[in-house]
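Write out this protein's structure.
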Amino acid sequence: MQKFTELTAIAAPLNIENVDTDKIIPARFLKTIKRSGLGVNLFSDMRYDSNGAEKPDFVLNQPQYRKAEILVAGENFGCGSSREHAPWALLDFGIRCVIAPSFADIFFNNCFKNGVLPVVLPKEICEQLMEDAKLGTNARLTVDLEKQIVLRPDGSQIPFQVEPFRKHCLLNGLDDIGLTMAHAPSIDSFETRRAQEESWRPSIHGV
C-alpha cells in the first residue's frame, strides 16, 4: 500500500450529500477483483450519459479538476453497500484524500485499509474548503497527516483528528497483510520453536 504522508494537490468540490458506494462505483463494474482499472468508472452514472459521453457539468470532467487528488464532499459520503471497490476506484482515479463532514463507517474503514485518507471536518469548514476548491488549479490544498492539518490556500491551518493506529498504518503504507508481514521474523521463530517442541505431532500433510 502506498504511504500517505503529505499531499499538496488540486481539490474537487462535490457538494452532494449521501453519495453512496453505488454512485462511487456502480454494481455492474464489480466483476473484477483487481484494484486497477476502476478509475475510468468512478462516478460512472454521474460522469457519463447513456451514450458513454462525458457530462461537461460533472466536476471531474471539468478541465481544472481532471487531475484532482483531493475530493471535498457532502455529509454521509460512502453510504450504501460495503464494497471495497469504492476506495479502489477513487485511488485508481487518483483521489488520495476525501474530506467530508461525515462518512459511512464501513467505507471509512475501507479507505484506511487501501491508502485513502478520509478526513472528517465540520460542515461549515467543508463548505469553506469547497469555496477554495472552486478556484480550480489556482487553489491547492495541503493535507499533512503527520501534523494532522489541512492547509488552505490563504495559509490558514485546519486541524483534524485521526486514530493513532490508523495514522501509523497510513504513514508507513501498511495494510492488513503488511501489518502481518512486519511480524514475519517473530512468526517464523514461533513456528520453528513449536515444531521442535511438538515434534511428536503429525504434520498437516500426515508425514
